[in-house]
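Changelog-adjacent note: as of this version, every example in the card shows the full chain rather than a window. The one below runs 124 residues end to end.
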Amino acid sequence: MDRFAIHEQEAIQSANIRAGQAQSAVIAANLQAQFNAALATLNGARRVAAATPIQVSSARTAIQQATARYQSGLAPIDDVAQAQRLLVQAQIDDGLARLSVWRAMLQVASARGDIQPVVAEAGQ
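Full-length structure tokens:
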């Protein structure tokens, strides 16, 4: 009788171990997927952030040109106002792009399980 009970307990424990291993594998796969997604987001955010300073520079050039045309009487003041609006939008986009990089860096660090490097870099 004891042998049957012990055999059943072993079977139950073996099933519990397999269930735990399966759950561990699912968690590991989810963490890897989260890390991969965060890394892809970071790469995309860095590409966008690399382009926005060019847009800001172009918008500044557009303001200079619009101002010069206005001052020489070749363009209305609306062109200058539009160029200023585009500069402000480009500056906002640049700030948001840099913020997206920080958010993505935090997501990657979180997926790794250690946000301390990001916190340390932010404090500099």
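Structural remarks: Residues 109 and 117 are 8 Å apart (CA to CA).
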